[in-house]
TrEMBL record:
Keywords: Aminotransferase, Pyridoxal phosphate, Transferase. GO terms for molecular function: 4-aminobutyrate:2-oxoglutarate transaminase activity; identical protein binding; pyridoxal phosphate binding. Signal peptide: none annotated. NCBIfam families: GABAtrnsam, PRK06058.1. This is Unannotated protein. One of its GO terms (biological process) is gamma-aminobutyric acid metabolic process. Pfam families: Aminotran_3 (PF00202). Its cofactor is pyridoxal 5'-phosphate. Belongs to the class-III pyridoxal-phosphate-dependent aminotransferase family.
Amino acid sequence: MTSSLQAQDPLPQSRHIVTAIPGPKSAEAIARRKEAVSAGLGMAFPAVITRADGAIMEDLDGNRIIDLGSGIGVVTVGNSHPRVVSRVQEAVKAFTHTNFTTAPYLGYIEVCEALNDLTPGKFKKKSVLQNSGAEAVENAIKIARHYTKRQAIVVFEHAYHGRTNLTMALTAKNMPYKEGFGPFANEIYRMPMPYAYRWNGNAATMAADALDDVMHKIEKEIGADNVAAIIIEPIQGEGGFIVPPKGFLSGLSKYATQHGIVFIADEVQTGFARTGNYFAVEDEGVEPDMIVTAKGIAGGLPLAAVTARAEIMDSSHVGGLGGTYGGNPIACAAALGAMEAIREEKLVERAREIGAILHSALTAMAAKYPVIGDVRGRGAMQAIEIVMAGSKEPNPAAMASVIKYCQQQGVLILTAGTYGNVIRFLPPLVISDELLKEALAILDQALAAL
Ligand code: PLZ
């Protein structure tokens, strides 16, 4: 054995920086990437990862990095959670694929049972599994249209729902998601979103005013009877962790019910313990007709789902739903392991504790550094919006320097936002207080260095 860590050694849960980032080995691999991989893919963190465990990722040069991104909110239970790993190992030894609509297997059924049980609403529910968030959103829309026999879909400013053709149409932001990739699907109507930090109206009546506006637009521009579904992220993710004011989601849900519209919560980023509830809509006691999940559902394996009232899910003719890989047995095994980890390690409660640490540290930084215009989020889904000091003008340049500084110190932090100026925190929920505070101290230094 050499002095460097061997693959079989457990990965210490500590930050350890031995080279610049990228180090020489990562730099060489990134040069190969440049030759072999499409230039259309971004790279948020310039280091090539060889393994990861809990809240630590290790790169080719032996740097150990604190992960505050969870692979964009996916490894909520931590990187390579032992329950996920062992379930996957067992599953892969048993069989790798049948296609569920060819010959079924228990894992798929068990994941659907768990989803029907965990999602809000005591009514009878059923589920269908897919591979990605975008694919699940597509299916949600398809099912809602079939069920209602209507076509119009209501979406919101700052929304993100995916990169397929229909979900690009649902997504708000042009660059980089849509630019040059059209034409897009029709019958999509975008509504104003109450974005508290940038709301020009009266803050006290924001939820009611925004709702009035949305209902007026639906009635005048679409006709409520033509609307199949309203789809919304309970906290907008890529849009910049925009938390709607209390009363907005419940008002929308009520309006949808009154008009026979399917209310769809896209919980792809907010779901599975992230916000300190199993699902973010629970914060307001909202029971969506349909809920889309992905990311945190399966601890890193590709899995997504649509769960809805049984009558909606059963309205499709046999063979109307499907796909080769959706609900693949290995991904289902991973999901069962991840759900077990959330339950047994009380990660819903842990998300609240992490949220409290993040929120108080970020609020303290906001008091010191006027480039922080806003601190917002819920549970382990928190963000800061970076602006020009003394104004609300977005400051993506300052955000980029902060991120760069953190990278050099071995802290992986993601960005977001319609204006490209939001730093978002999505740590794995198994991160220790010490590691989280160490990462936040580095963020503080990065802001001080501006
Ligand atoms: N709905 C709310 O956040 C995915 C996008 C990463 P897929 N968000 C991360 C990127 O740059 O492509 C997302 C989401 C919400 C849907 C999706 C789409 O999920 O699994 O990426 O298809």
